Amino acid sequence: METYTSIPEDLKLAVLEKVKPTEAERKILSAVQEELAAEVIAAAEKLCVSDIFVKMVGSAARGTWLSGTHDIDVFISFPEETHRRDLEISGMAIAREVAKHAEHAEDRHAEHPYLNIVFKGFDVDLVPCFRVASACQLKSAVDRTPFHNEFVKTHIKGREDEVLLMKQFMRGGGVYGSELRTQGFSGYLTELLIIHYGSFENAVKAACTWKPGQKIDIMQHSEIGHNEPLVMVDPTDPKRNVAAALSLDKFCMFIDHCREFLANPEFKFFFSAPILPLEDKEFLEKLESRKSSQLAVVFKTPDVVDDVLYPQLYKMEQAAAALLSEYDFSVIKTGVWSGNPVTVIMLELISGTLPNVKKRIGPPVWVREHSEKFKAKYEGAENVFGGYIEGGKYVFEIQRKYLTAKSLLEDQLVNCSLGKQVHQSVNEGFEVIEDARICRLNDSDFRVFLRKWM
Hints:
15 strands
């Protein structure tokens, strides 16, 4: 096993100075949490909803939140025997009552509805849940979160700074966030890594040796198999993999980030330099130097939450690549960017055009029945240039249906499997833009994506 020198203490302190919340920040957060809890109780009393508990969960409740982040998770806990419909109706009624004092409110939906509000500058989720006896007796997926909260609070004491270092390090490497858009490491997963390895430094060193299938079972109580790159057995629910949302690429990006960092520990690994939007001139220069074909499929962004949208976009990305490959276009890479009002699927091809002639190779001549059927199908048919025998097989040169990737996508993309909302949006209209014409897309966030893409 490769050995590494210790990470300089002054580097850790410099990072913590930027990411550790100040005492003033903590006091403000605590005051807002207390006010929200009081608002929930008052709303429940006003609506005559009894036996309600308020639970603050997430990193803000565990002391593992990064300075400058303003997220609070408020769980409105109902007795276990509450009917699902009653929980949804009463829980959302309480949340909406609290939202009367908020700057903004938005209905959201996971397994059941919850409310997202902006309250005194904080991004707050008001989430109804069941007060179950254990994480193995869930009535809804969110019911396990309070158990996560208690486990971390019990085991993380004294190592909160280690979590902050790891979270910022993951941010710097572009792998932090378990939402389906990012497919990276969740806050809870990050905390469990620190609990398991004991420190940021130990975790980073250990990650350098990870391979797909890496399993961590803090409580040593699971024999359940999983196929994901990293398996972090949930200490509160042995059947669940906390790292299920982590993609293979983000898993490997983290390993690479750890190795690069330990080879030369520097501040930049925690705070990556901002990426500037790609200017037209730079794009055209890169286009010329790459000598490849760039295509952008542009359509209106469906009005759904990211965790619904992105799986469909990744599905479309794969479907578009498969369609192009089926018609002999060589795909170098694909990418997804989504903003408001449009979404873009990017495709880079070796060439966006193909010759008009295509070879159809049939069975060996001595396989009489099949070879004669093949010959009869093409011999003398329209759009066939000619036929011959090569390597003992009948070969016919035929005319291609699609000479450009652009025309293929324009004609056939809507027939691909794209996901419900994405298919509906594409069906309403889309555009395929090629090469230099992609400069028409001026969104600054897209241009940042384009710099990374090129």
